[in-house]
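Might you be able to consider the sequence and fold that I enclose below?
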Amino acid sequence: MPDPLTIGELAQRSGVATSALRFYEERGLIESQRTGAGHRRYARAVVRRVAFIVFAQRVGLTLEEIGAELARLPADRVPRRQDWAALSSSWTARLDERIAELERLKAGLSECIGCGCLSLDRCLLANPDDRAGRRGAGPRYLIAGPPEPEPEPWLA
Protein backbone atom coordinates (compact mmCIF):
# COMPACT_ATOMS: atom_id res chain seq x y z
CA MET A 1 0.00 0.00 0.00
CA PRO A 2 1.44 3.39 -0.96
CA ASP A 3 2.33 5.88 1.73
CA PRO A 4 -0.59 8.00 2.87
CA LEU A 5 -0.62 11.71 2.08
CA THR A 6 -0.12 14.52 4.55
CA ILE A 7 -2.70 17.29 4.49
CA GLY A 8 -0.21 19.50 2.64
CA GLU A 9 0.39 16.83 0.01
CA LEU A 10 -3.36 16.29 -0.41
CA ALA A 11 -3.86 20.05 -0.76
CA GLN A 12 -1.13 20.28 -3.38
CA ARG A 13 -2.38 17.24 -5.28
CA SER A 14 -6.06 18.25 -5.21
CA GLY A 15 -5.68 22.02 -5.54
CA VAL A 16 -7.86 22.51 -2.45
CA ALA A 17 -6.72 24.58 0.54
CA THR A 18 -5.85 22.75 3.73
CA SER A 19 -8.54 24.70 5.55
CA ALA A 20 -11.14 23.36 3.09
CA LEU A 21 -9.84 19.83 3.57
CA ARG A 22 -10.23 20.17 7.34
CA PHE A 23 -13.74 21.52 6.77
CA TYR A 24 -14.63 18.57 4.50
CA GLU A 25 -13.34 16.22 7.16
CA GLU A 26 -15.39 17.94 9.88
CA ARG A 27 -18.47 17.49 7.67
CA GLY A 28 -17.68 13.79 7.18
CA LEU A 29 -17.01 14.09 3.43
CA ILE A 30 -13.45 12.75 3.73
CA GLU A 31 -11.59 11.01 6.51
CA SER A 32 -8.05 10.75 7.72
CA GLN A 33 -6.06 8.59 10.07
CA ARG A 34 -4.05 10.24 12.81
CA THR A 35 -0.42 9.59 13.58
CA GLY A 36 0.81 9.21 17.17
CA ALA A 37 1.56 12.94 17.09
CA GLY A 38 -1.98 13.75 15.90
CA HIS A 39 -1.06 14.61 12.29
CA ARG A 40 -3.58 13.79 9.60
CA ARG A 41 -2.76 11.16 7.00
CA TYR A 42 -5.02 10.54 4.01
CA ALA A 43 -5.30 7.45 1.86
CA ARG A 44 -4.44 8.24 -1.74
CA ALA A 45 -8.02 7.42 -2.79
CA VAL A 46 -9.13 10.56 -0.92
CA VAL A 47 -7.75 12.61 -3.84
CA ARG A 48 -10.63 11.22 -5.94
CA ARG A 49 -13.19 12.07 -3.28
CA VAL A 50 -11.90 15.64 -3.08
CA ALA A 51 -12.05 15.95 -6.88
CA PHE A 52 -15.63 14.66 -6.75
CA ILE A 53 -16.53 17.20 -4.04
CA VAL A 54 -15.09 20.09 -6.08
CA PHE A 55 -16.86 18.93 -9.23
CA ALA A 56 -20.17 18.41 -7.42
CA GLN A 57 -19.96 21.88 -5.90
CA ARG A 58 -19.43 23.36 -9.36
CA VAL A 59 -22.49 21.49 -10.58
CA GLY A 60 -24.40 23.18 -7.78
CA LEU A 61 -24.82 20.45 -5.18
CA THR A 62 -24.83 21.48 -1.55
CA LEU A 63 -22.43 19.86 0.89
CA GLU A 64 -25.36 17.91 2.33
CA GLU A 65 -26.22 16.56 -1.12
CA ILE A 66 -22.57 15.74 -1.74
CA GLY A 67 -22.41 13.85 1.55
CA ALA A 68 -25.49 11.84 0.61
CA GLU A 69 -23.96 11.02 -2.77
CA LEU A 70 -20.64 9.98 -1.24
CA ALA A 71 -22.47 7.76 1.24
CA ARG A 72 -23.70 5.73 -1.73
CA LEU A 73 -20.13 4.70 -2.59
CA PRO A 74 -19.01 1.21 -1.60
CA ALA A 75 -17.39 1.05 1.83
CA ASP A 76 -15.53 -2.21 1.17
CA ARG A 77 -13.36 -1.04 -1.73
CA VAL A 78 -11.94 1.95 -3.57
CA PRO A 79 -14.62 3.44 -5.86
CA ARG A 80 -14.26 2.62 -9.54
CA ARG A 81 -15.10 4.68 -12.59
CA GLN A 82 -18.54 3.04 -12.79
CA ASP A 83 -19.27 4.11 -9.20
CA TRP A 84 -18.46 7.73 -9.99
CA ALA A 85 -20.47 7.57 -13.22
CA ALA A 86 -23.50 6.21 -11.36
CA LEU A 87 -23.35 9.08 -8.87
CA SER A 88 -23.13 11.78 -11.50
CA SER A 89 -25.67 10.33 -13.95
CA SER A 90 -28.60 12.03 -12.23
CA TRP A 91 -27.02 15.46 -12.63
CA THR A 92 -27.86 15.95 -16.31
CA ALA A 93 -31.18 17.68 -15.65
CA ARG A 94 -29.57 19.89 -13.02
CA LEU A 95 -26.83 20.90 -15.46
CA ASP A 96 -29.41 21.60 -18.18
CA GLU A 97 -31.28 23.90 -15.77
CA ARG A 98 -28.05 25.64 -14.84
CA ILE A 99 -27.09 26.09 -18.50
CA ALA A 100 -30.52 27.58 -19.27
CA GLU A 101 -30.17 29.94 -16.30
CA LEU A 102 -26.73 31.05 -17.49
CA GLU A 103 -28.07 31.59 -21.01
CA ARG A 104 -30.81 33.83 -19.58
CA LEU A 105 -28.20 35.66 -17.53
CA LYS A 106 -26.04 36.14 -20.60
CA ALA A 107 -28.98 37.53 -22.59
CA GLY A 108 -29.90 39.75 -19.67
CA LEU A 109 -26.52 41.46 -19.69
CA SER A 110 -27.67 43.67 -22.53
CA GLU A 111 -31.42 43.09 -22.52
CA CYS A 112 -34.24 43.62 -20.09
CA ILE A 113 -34.23 41.18 -17.18
CA GLY A 114 -37.81 41.94 -16.25
CA CYS A 115 -37.07 43.96 -13.15
CA GLY A 116 -39.79 46.48 -13.85
CA CYS A 117 -37.40 49.43 -13.70
CA LEU A 118 -38.30 50.66 -17.19
CA SER A 119 -35.00 52.51 -17.20
CA LEU A 120 -33.47 50.91 -20.27
CA ASP A 121 -34.44 52.14 -23.71
CA ARG A 122 -35.20 48.56 -24.72
CA CYS A 123 -37.61 48.02 -21.82
CA LEU A 124 -40.34 49.67 -23.83
CA LEU A 125 -39.91 46.87 -26.32
CA ALA A 126 -38.97 43.99 -23.99
CA ASN A 127 -41.24 44.90 -21.08
CA PRO A 128 -44.05 47.20 -22.24
CA ASP A 129 -46.38 48.33 -19.47
CA ASP A 130 -44.23 46.37 -17.02
CA ARG A 131 -45.61 42.97 -18.03
CA ALA A 132 -42.79 41.38 -16.01
CA GLY A 133 -44.09 43.05 -12.85
CA ARG A 134 -47.31 41.04 -13.13
CA ARG A 135 -45.24 37.84 -12.93
CA GLY A 136 -43.77 38.77 -9.55
CA ALA A 137 -40.99 40.77 -7.94
CA GLY A 138 -37.35 40.70 -8.95
CA PRO A 139 -35.65 39.87 -12.25
CA ARG A 140 -38.50 37.76 -13.62
CA TYR A 141 -37.06 37.05 -17.04
CA LEU A 142 -33.83 35.82 -15.46
CA ILE A 143 -35.64 33.67 -12.91
CA ALA A 144 -38.52 32.36 -14.98
CA GLY A 145 -37.34 32.78 -18.53
CA PRO A 146 -38.52 35.12 -21.27
CA PRO A 147 -42.08 36.39 -21.29
CA GLU A 148 -44.82 34.52 -23.07
CA PRO A 149 -45.98 36.45 -26.11
CA GLU A 150 -49.23 38.26 -25.39
CA PRO A 151 -51.95 38.06 -28.01
CA GLU A 152 -52.40 41.10 -30.15
CA PRO A 153 -55.42 43.15 -29.00
CA TRP A 154 -57.19 42.74 -32.33
CA LEU A 155 -56.89 38.93 -32.07
CA ALA A 156 -58.29 38.64 -28.55
